[in-house]
Amino acid sequence: MSDPVADGRDALNQWFGYPWYDAETDGVRRIEASDPWDWSFSFPGSLLQWAAWIAIGLLLALAAYLLVRAFANREKRLAKKTADPAGAADRVEALPAALAGTIGPMDYLAEAERCRQSGDYGRAVVYLYSHELWQLDCHGRIRLARGKTNRQYLGEVAPSPALRGLVESTMLVFEDVFFGHHAIERPAFEAVWEKLGEFQTLVETGAGR
Question: Is residue 115 within 8 Å of residue 62, measured between CB atoms?
Answer without folding.
Answer: no
